Amino acid sequence: MKKLGLFLLLCAAAAASAADPAPVPKGPPVAVKQVKFPDFPSVKPKVDPPVPAPKADPDAPAKLGKGQYYVVASPKPLLILPAGTGEVTVQTRKPPFMLPAAQALGWQPDAKDPEFVTWGDEYPYLYVVKGSKSGDVALTVIPALNDLDDKKAQIPLAPKDVLKKLLQVDDGTGPRPPPDVIPVPKPVDPPKPPDVIPNPSKGFRVLFIYERQADLTQEQLNILASTKIVAYLNDKCVKDANGKPEFRKWDKSTIEKEGGLAKESALWQQMWKDSKDKIGKLPQVVIVNDQAGVPYEWPATEDAMLALLKKYGG
Amino acid sequence: MGFSSSMYRDELVIDDSTPDAITDAPEGYSQSLRLDFRGPKEYEYGDLATPFPSNLLIPRHEWQARIQEMEERKTRISDVVEQAGLPCKDQSQTNYCWINAPVHLIEVTRVLQNQAMVILSPASAGGPIKGYRNVGGWGKEGLEYLVQYGCVPVDKWPANAIDRRYNTAENRELAMMYRVVEWMELRPRNLDEVMSCLLRRIPIAVGYNWWRHEVSLYDPVWLNGQPGGRLRNSWGMSWPQPMAGGYSILQGSKLLPDDAVCPVSAIAA
Questions:
Q1: CATH code for the domain defined by A197-313
Q2: Which residues pair with B50 in a beta bridge?
Q3: pLDDT tens digits along B13-38
Q4: Which of A143, A230, A242 is opposite residue B83, by nearest beta carbon?
Q5: Count of the separate structural domains present in chain B
Q6: Fewer beta carbons below 10 Å: N end or C end of chain B?
Q7: pTM value?
Q8: A219 contact partners, CB below 8 Å, separation of at least 6
């Protein structure tokens, strides 16, 4: 009972502090440790009785189940930018912070009390990632403040400072396995196309469809303004009569206004007519080749989008 | 040394220490922003365009890292515009800076949407707005017209021809293909809204009382630990120096616009 009281008190203190952004540390930097991610297992371990967690593959996606948290602990403030469609939320916490060990997979339980995991002052910045709905999501983890050199000048970020972590969120709404069966993770397949869209003409065409005034993530904005993707599509897409590569980036609310597509070519009007009822939650990309096309949710990163396009465009 | 944005060739940094002479119009050009032409209660914030939605604000502590990433991955508006080869405007002898910037942003928005790159005539909108007089105005006035009537490509209406003879039925019909559909307005002198817009790759037509001039803002930049904005001017490709292509950087209070509107999307055509 005493332990439960302490736990509730710590959680309440952490929740109260979560509304404020993490303050810039004053005085000499505390930085002695590196950012620590959970040693996340790829197979859900049994919790009771405790069994050793399987060896984690650092590059494998971490599987985040219902009621579980992915806790990133850092000696310095971070930006954690999820690139997905709302699969996770990220909250800031301050030490001391405690979670039941069953909800904080990948962290060593307390030696004295293995039912809990506690984060102390060695990690003044804690970021708690919680699943909201099933799906894949890439986390980009960037230092929020640059380190300073001996002359108090900022040291620029290097590519190694930008970390990527993949999460597979399972909100538990899928079919449940029979009792006493250890769940086996399904192989990661590319998203299944929900429907097929006819190509009004031969050739490789691509339509990006999004809401310009939606709160797009940094990765989605990178996809939208990617010169790499434009260069690829300029090369691979079939050209119209004026030599213009046949790909488009449309704001959905614009083209759905009356006459929004009236000035577009008949081919693209037809393409939208065939696509509009088949696309899912925005942003989406419709990729068509000689025969037909399929709509996809935008992959998590610019590179993943390029890889998806190359699957069809060569 | 901290992260600093890379600069384009011959670009200038215009900040609070820059002498006015540096930003004065070159010979043959003008600065003609006339916010004082607005009547009382005319063109107040939020009366015509969608106010910048607060959910699109990006916290200040994210700016530097986002800018650095945009530059490294070449996903800035200027990267896309340079990839397409879109030139800046040249308002020449006209007093039409206030319509050059919004018209240029239709060109930029079309490039971002991968529509055919078309050079559009500022005079085809500014002329009808001002009764074919060569006088100053402001960006919101220009964008309001462009939403309703659009503008005409320069092969049908020369860029600086303030001449009603080009206002034909055929050109009015053609102009409907080059319209803004959605547009937003930013609060005057609001740094957070300016930077959030640029970080979201939404270019802004900005009018400055200190400069009496209207230009286009493309990119967020980070120089000497402070945010800034990369502008593109309408004084030709040789401003401010021969190879600059119309680019320069605004920082400090010089960055804060007195009039700021942005086309969010152009008609698909």
A1: 3.40.30.10
A2: B184
A3: 999 999 988 899 998 898 888 887 77
A4: A230
A5: 1
A6: N
A7: 0.67
A8: A81, A83, A138, A140, A300, A301, A302
